[in-house]
Design a protein that fits this description.
Blueprint (H helix, E strand, L loop, with lengths): L3 H13 L15 H4 L20 H13 L1 H22 L4 E12 L14 E14 L5 H67 L5 H35 L26 E3 L7 H22 L4 E13 L10 E10 L7 H67 L5 H35 L24 E3 L5
Antiparallel strand pairs: 1-2, 2-4, 3-6, 4-5
Helix pairs in contact: 3-5, 4-5, 5-6, 5-7, 5-9, 7-8, 8-9
Length: 488
């Protein structure tokens, strides 16, 4: 009978306890092989990729932006917060000890079962002792909570690295915009000089009786248009300066310190003919998304372990007595210890809800990772296509520019010699102006596309580049590549 009662009690407890739900099917995570991220591992990107522009001012602006950007400060603060949560989770794996002391003044009822003369009188009751507890974590709940916190901390660091990379890219692209506006202002100034020259020629032709004042007024009317174009380009350059100052965490007092870019736009960030496609695996956002999946899986395992018995060790030693003057006497001491088993029986569905929430978080993390990887592949392929298309456009546009400039020179000479009308000069000048502007647009668009491609592959075209991200390990297998199209 003595054995039967505990067995029946145990059966009742196990029957009524909260059982973990069956695991549901999760979305399929894209494999590395499916998107070309397998093969020889590549090193993380270097922090100073912008040095390829060989522009000291750009280097100063980016370093200033990385140092003072509120966005980066916020991202780094999230890293610190995640690190604190990791340390808190790790504390759960170790024993904890507490020192507790209390003093309670109370009046005992007259019929209270305590030794006389305390019954019916007021007295102090004191307690002081040390308690020790240690969760043995048989089912890995604490260990998975630690792994989840560690993965989230690493993901937060990757997010900070990605914010740093994106900020450097935004500053560089704004710097290229500044270069473009200066180049367009130069074209406008050159066009203004050409139109002034045509005005001078027309005045001489009017004085010689070869043209009328109508042609002179037409020629003079083109001068304000050239000045308007130059003013617009200078205003756009000022706006680019304002944007650069904001991106680098500076105010209006920094505008005067940002001058004209001096880099060679065609030589900056040369793209190799072949890129290992698994460069994408070092992108900070890809690494962060994968760590988030691992963290969500650890969170699911921790939520599942909460359904099982929690086994811990407890120990205590201290003093307790009626009357504070008796608290530290030898006969007031006591101690104890032993295991403590806690098994959830009824919780209104709380543990099941937490587990379902952890599973949903895992599903969302997998879908987010898949989306980021697919976008990374598309962005890289798109930029390679754009770079190759712009290279071909530049060749054709260079031929157009040379032809229109030659046509303009010929039209100017013929007009000066009285062999052509002013209308032919105006048409030639319009064509050469458009060709020059298109060439500037193509060259700067190429530079922006190279920066965008570099951001898409994680910050460097060189697989051997090293930087601030987690080190990658090399292997002997071959690596898929993205091959650029060669220009005709």
């Amino acid at each position: 009978m003595r054995i039967a009662i505990p067995l029946l009690l145990s059966a009742a407890i196990l029957t009524g306890c909260v059982l973990p739900p069956k695991e549901t099917a999760h979305p399929r995570e894209l494999t590395d092989e499916a998107v070309g991220l397998s093969g020889t591992a590549v090193e993380p990107a270097a922090d100073s990729w912008w040095n390829s522009f060989q522009d000291a001012q750009l280097d100063r602006l980016i370093r200033l932006g990385v140092k003072d950007s509120p966005t980066l400060a916020e991202a780094q603060a999230r890293v610190g917060q995640a690190l604190a949560l990791t340390q808190a989770a790790q504390a759960g794996l170790h024993p904890s000890a507490n020192l507790d002391a209390s003093a309670l003044y109370q009046r005992a009822p007259a019929n209270y079962i305590i030794p006389p003369p305390l019954a019916g009188h007021s007295f102090w009751m004191g307690q002081a002792g040390v308690s020790l507890s240690w969760d043995l974590d048989f089912w890995g709940r604490q260990a998975n909570a630690v792994r989840r916190a560690q993965d989230l901390t690493a993901a937060a660091q990757m997010d900070a690295d990605n914010a740093r990379l994106m900020l450097a890219g935004a500053i560089t692209q704004a710097y290229i915009d500044l270069y473009r506006e200066y180049a367009l202002a130069d074209i406008a100034a050159r066009s203004e000089a050409q139109r002034q020259n045509i005005v001078d020629i027309t005045r001489r032709r009017v004085a010689a009786g070869l043209d009328t004042r109508l042609e002179l007024r037409q020629a003079e009317g083109q001068l304000p248009q050239a000045r308007v174009a130059r003013t617009q380009a200078q205003a756009a350059a000022d706006l680019a300066v304002h944007q650069l100052a904001a991106l680098t965490g500076q105010g209006a007092d920094a505008y005067a310190s940002i001058g004209r870019p001096v880099f060679q736009v065609d030589a900056a960030l040369p793209v190799p003919a072949v890129l290992p496609i698994n460069l994408l695996a070092r992108r900070p956002d890809v690494l962060s998304a994968r760590l988030s999946v691992e963290a969500a899986d650890a969170g699911r395992l921790a939520a599942k372990a909460a359904f099982y018995p929690d086994v811990s060790l407890r120990a205590l030693a201290g003093f307790g007595a009626f009357g504070l003057n008796n608290l530290v006497q030898g006969n007031a001491s006591g101690y104890g210890g032993g295991p403590l088993i806690s098994l959830p029986l009824f919780d209104g569905g709380r543990l099941r809800a937490q587990y379902r929430g952890a599973e949903s978080q895992l599903d969302a993390s997998i879908d987010n990772y898949n989306g980021i990887v697919l976008r990374a592949v598309q962005q890289t392929a798109d930029q390679i296509t754009r770079i190759d298309a712009l290279a071909r456009e530049q060749i054709d546009q260079q031929q157009t520019l040379e032809a229109t400039e030659a046509a303009y020179q010929l039209a100017e000479e013929r007009y000066k010699a009285g062999l052509a009308s002013y209308l032919s000069v105006l048409n030639a000048e319009t064509q050469v102006l458009t060709a020059r502007q298109s060439m500037v647009d193509i060259r700067t668009s190429q530079a922006v596309a190279r920066v965008t491609l570099l951001l898409a592959v994680g910050g460097s075209f060189d697989p051997r580049a090293t930087g601030n991200l987690a080190a990658a390990h090399s292997s002997e297998s071959s690596s898929p590549t993205l091959t650029r199209m060669t220009s005709p």
